[in-house]
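seq as requested:
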Amino acid sequence: MKIKGLTLIFVLTSIITFWINFIDFKFNAFWIFSNKADKAETVIDNLCLSYIAGYIFYFLNVYLVEKQEKKSILPYISFKTNLIISNSNHIIKVLKQDVHLKEFYPTLKEFEELLKYDNVKDLKTYNYENHNLVSFLMIRRNSTVKTINKILKSGKHVDDELKSILFSLKDSLFLKKGFAFNLPTFDIKKFPDYDLVFFKYFQDIERLDLYFHKNFKKYYLLNYPKHYRRKLAGKLKR
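struct tokens:
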């Protein structure tokens, strides 16, 4: 149960305890408790006091501690998550030769066209001008795998949904070490054979992108100074 539900029960039990101990109107006013009102009040009061004590312990030693951890850990996880998305989207910018591109998730049919030899043979790898497409993809592959591992080592604040996406990415052929275009000797004429590999990988990246915007935007902004957050928030709008 979330903290709001637990807090609501805490308020109700506090009211009941106050009523039993400080208000004259007691359980003996109800016929069902006739001759047993004192015992009923004692049992209910003890249960309420036990819950109140448990709630206070949980709030101070679990909830507040986790909340403080999230303030330091989730901005880090969100930053690394966005790094995976940005690095992957950089690949699409290179394939489409559009550094200002906004749409990063091609269909399978679009990948068939993008990976044709005539398209990939003379691509400009933005920010990596000294590398051809194969070595550029290997750089991106190594960086992404390292980042995924760092996120997975971040502990309990990596939830099941995020883990599922990250493990799917990590197990993909796209990131498999020594696979096809992850070898320096890969012949770029064979890129069209791997359109489905690209498509499935970027389906997972799109899932990660959706997850980021749903869960991490507010934490990602905490990585930056206050005066810059509003400007950055506008860039992160979908």
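The two ends are 31 Å apart (CA to CA).
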